[in-house]
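To the wet lab folks,

You asked to see what we're planning to order before we commit. Fair enough. Below is the target structure as tokens, and below that is the sequence we designed to fit it. If anything looks off to you, flag it before the synthesis order goes out.
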């Protein structure tokens, strides 16, 4: 599956097809990780957040059924984002935040990205910049994921906002995104 060669809307369908095939072959772990591709795509392209809410609920349920704690922690990140967007989690309860700095596996990078997105949606650009800076070293874990591209865009936008502040050190800020 190469979702970056197709419109983002098709990534969720491709991830679902891959997960279904993994289930047919009895690979529960691989099937559960299909949501790593479908959730970011749905966050960006679903016509309504109810679709995202349903996908998160399915992801959390599959992670629970298969005792996949690493996947569950990633899906909680998306539930936290849903809470930031709607003040509601899938469970209807309060968010269960995943601390990016201490999260295991892929949950940390995803937490940095989607907390930064939530901060941007709430116009908290200093927080977006701080999360982007702290999260950048962990992005290698998800380097080929769509979410890494989101992180780079958020970082660039937060730097653009910072550059507009009086007295900003333009050279230092611009150097942050240099390869």
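Sequence we intend to order:
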């Amino acid at each position: 599956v190469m979702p970056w060669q197709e419109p983002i809307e098709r990534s969720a369908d491709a991830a679902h097809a891959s997960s279904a095939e993994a289930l047919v072959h009895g690979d529960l772990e691989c099937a559960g990780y299909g949501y790593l591709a479908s959730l970011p795509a749905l966050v960006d392209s679903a016509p309504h957040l109810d679709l995202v809410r349903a996908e998160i609920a399915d992801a959390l349920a599959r992670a629970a059924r298969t005792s996949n704690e690493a996947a569950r922690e990633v899906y909680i990140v998306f539930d936290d984002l849903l809470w930031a967007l709607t003040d509601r989690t899938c469970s209807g309860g309060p968010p269960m935040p995943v601390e990016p700095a201490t999260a295991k596996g892929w949950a940390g990078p995803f937490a940095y990205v989607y907390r930064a997105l939530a901060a941007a949606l709430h116009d908290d650009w200093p927080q977006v910049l701080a999360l982007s800076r702290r999260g950048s070293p962990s992005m290698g874990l998800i380097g080929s994921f769509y979410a890494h591209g989101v992180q780079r865009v958020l970082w660039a936008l937060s730097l653009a906002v910072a550059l507009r502040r009086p007295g900003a050190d333009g050279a230092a800020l611009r150097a942050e995104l240099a390869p």
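Structural context that might help your review: The mean pLDDT is 83. The chain is about 65% helix and 0% strand.

Thanks,
Computational group
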